Amino acid sequence: MNRRVFDRAATLDLFNPSIGDYVLQRYKDDVSMLRNGMQSLRSESSLTTLLSLQRNGDLSKVDFNDICNFMMGELVACGFEGVSTSYVSLLCLYRIIEINDGEIIFQGDWSCAIDFILLNADGCATYDSFVVIEWALSEGEISNKQVLDFVEKNVCSIGSDDEIRAASSLISSVPTTIEAYQENVELLKEHVINLMCDNFCEFIEVSDAFSKVGYGEYDEAEKEIKNLIKYKLSELNVNFLESDIEIVAGSYSISYELDRYYEDHGDDYSYDNDRSSKVFSINEVDELFDRS
Q1: Which of 79, 112, 130, 158 is most open to solvent, judged by the fewest CB atoms within 10 Å of its CB?
Q2: Model-level pTM?
């Protein structure tokens, strides 16, 4: 057996999920051990595991809150050193919103967490960040100006449908009379339009449009595509003009892609093809008995 000596502390790599499950089941009733373990991990996946323990009934709501409060207190004590805004946002989301339905008396530690997210989520905000900031605004913990500044700094980080909806909801929570409100609305819309142009097929299911038109029906295909774009933007709660629809539709080569669609799929469901397939098809079971 070979022995290796390192100058760093010993660690256990839980590469095997079954080992991780065993450890959790072994120590889930030891709140002190669980608290210290979660505090040491400081990862988003560890928070998800903690929430799962609570939802599965392995951890009480009181113990869940105590662990979260402890971890937040430790983060504040060390000045949030070594943690990301996404981690802090998720911790806030689980502790304040998911488990307690937003019912929490603001304490110093949690106020510090909101301030940390506002100041440090510069271009790296997540869905959780937008949701937590909207909640903080509803509680009167932050100002409308802070919200709009936050959106302006982080609109570039928005990529998923959920993040778009969360950002749109956050902007909508600010009164329309506030200065820079409309500017943020336009900023989000411009970002989403560019996002859709660059990742068209991730937002629009083009086969839904092409399946409704025939080969070479380019104008009809364009109408169907535009309808899908309008529906998607409405679903994302993003205000738009007809000119925005034209921009997104223009980013996709509809004629070329329609031709490709029919080259790949053909008219598989035409009456003639269906009829001929039935006439000339051979039923293997019947054929077997006929031979006998």
Answers
A1: 79
A2: 0.81
